[in-house]
Automatic annotation (TrEMBL):
It comes from the Eukaryota. GO terms for biological process: RNA catabolic process. Belongs to the RNase T2 family. The active site is at 43, 97, 101. May remobilize phosphate, particularly when cells senesce or when phosphate becomes limiting. It comes from Crotalaria pallida (Smooth rattlebox). This is Uncharacterized protein.
Length: 208
């Protein structure tokens, strides 16, 4: 009896706002390809269980193989940049995401499909546009958490998960947005459970 192909219930597709990743005490480093666009970037596509727990590092034998994503790399550089320090070219971040999360969805998606699926979701879930349509723009202003949540719901059809962090002045700010996706990776669904948000009722949308 082997414990293989651990199942999961749904994905969180998680995007990060670079202004909030950078605007904290820990700070950030731009990738070698230069300062990323002022847009949300992909953090990851994370298999999850309906009770809020999740599997991780499911297959130590499936190491990240960059040759499988060579055709996706220019899109990955653009839409999935790594902002951690020291400055890197993305491979470390992508490899971490594949090994920690992607390997738990191998029953549904191989490595190339996993990254391709995330890139397609990025196109579909255009957060910056959804927010702009509600006059919510990264201008260092404060917006109600509800107005941000409603603007995204208008765009996707479902209530998102919103995670905040704190800038160096301890202001609560928009950091990550979670939308839920079925196990095929194609269809947005109503979130079975929302991640815990840690946001104040009014949050800053920092410039990047
Ligand atoms: P943190 O503890 O900073 O919120 O998250 C640390 C890491 O745990 C994240 O980068 C991600 O890999 C994982 N993680 C956090 N929350 C969730 C979640 O709700 N679902 C899944 N699948 N992974 C999560
Ligand atoms: P905590 O006890 O603070 O919820 O979690 C401690 C650590 O375990 C954190 O790094 C958190 O990201 C991780 N963690 C919490 N819940 C889960 C889970 O359901 N699955 C996995 N793989 N890690 C988790
Ligand atoms: P998680 O475990 O939460 O899925 O991913 C977080 C890990 O990815 C951390 O070890 C972090 O240092 C690394 N990482 C590299 N680049 C980035 C980035 O741009 N944003 C975030 N949130 N984590 C990054």
């Amino acid at each position: 009896l082997v414990c293989l192909a651990q199942d999961f219930d749904f994905f969180y597709f998680v995007q990060q706002w670079p202004g909030a990743y950078c605007d904290t005490k820990q700070s950030c480093c731009y990738p070698k390809t230069g300062k990323p666009a002022a847009d949300f970037g992909i953090h990851g596509l994370w298999p999850n269980y309906n009770d809020g727990s999740w599997p991780s590092n499911c297959d130590p034998d499936s190491v990240f193989d960059k040759s499988q994503i060579s055709e996706l790399q220019s899109s990955m550089d653009k839409y999935w940049p790594s902002l951690s320090c020291p400055s890197s070219n993305g491979f470390r971040f992508w490899s971490h995401e594949w090994e920690k999360h992607g390997t738990c969805a191998e029953s549904e998606l191989d490595q190339r499909e996993y990254f391709e699926t995330a890139l397609k979701l990025k196109e579909k879930v255009n957060l910056l546009q959804f927010l702009k349509d509600a006059d919510i723009v990264p201008d260092d202003g404060f917006y109600s958490l509800d107005s941000i949540s409603e603007a995204i719901e208008k765009g996707t059809g479902f209530t998102p998960g919103i995670e905040c962090n704190k800038d160096s002045a301890r202001n609560s700010q928009l950091y990550q947005v979670y939308v839920c996706v079925d196990t095929s990776g194609f269809n947005l669904i109503k979130c079975p459970i929302l991640p815990r948000s840690r946001c104040d009722s009014d949050i800053q949308f920092p410039k990047f």
